[in-house]
Amino acid sequence: MVRSELLAVRREKTRMRSLDVFRGICIAVMIFVNYGGGQYWFFKHSTWNGLTIADLVFPWFLWIMGVSVALSLRSQLRSSVSRWKLFKKVLCRSIVLVSLGILLNSIANAKHTKSTSLASLRLPGVLQRIGLSYFIVATLETLLMKREFFFE
After folding, report:
1. Are 134 and 93 in contact, with CB atoms under 8 Å apart?
2. Phi, psi of 55 (to 5 degrees)
3. Residue 125 dihedral angles phi and psi, to the nearest 5°
4. Keywords, A to Z (predicted)?
């Protein structure tokens, strides 16, 4: 098969429905936990010992993110996107996530404390942690994943 014929053959884009369903369940549980969880004990974070559904939402979401990153980057590497271009996308998305997290925490903190100083800035938030973990995982995937070629 000539390279031009190979590029002409397009694979139909499919979504992994099981991952989408799990992501939807995770987000629904996250919203439910954030708004009180109907006062059920298993929708409240455990104080120290024990484990509840509320304690599993963040690790579930990070697992979903890791699987999605691997699938997405593999697909982009197959379609001949350069590693440098992928890294720039990863860096940009990470900066956006961390910046949004700092911005949202600053707005919420300013409402509660009536202070806008840099000393009251809260850096270790949820979005910042997601952005940092995304950057680490996606960078490793971008640099270390073997380039595969798709043949029909």
Report:
1. yes
2. -75, -15
3. -105, 180
4. Membrane, Transmembrane, Transmembrane helix
Angle at 69 between CA 137 and CA 148, to 5 degrees: 100
Q: Nearest 5°: CA angle at 140, between 139 and 146?
A: 110
CB 26 within 8 A of CB 57: yes
Catalytic residue among 11, 45, 85, 122: 45
The DSSP line for 12-67 is PP---HHHHHHHHHHHHHHHHHHTTGGG-GGGS--SSS---HHHHHHHHHHHHHHH
Residue 4: both structure tokens together: 């031009």
pTM: 0.74
Respond yes or no: is residue 45 known to be catalytic.
Answer: yes
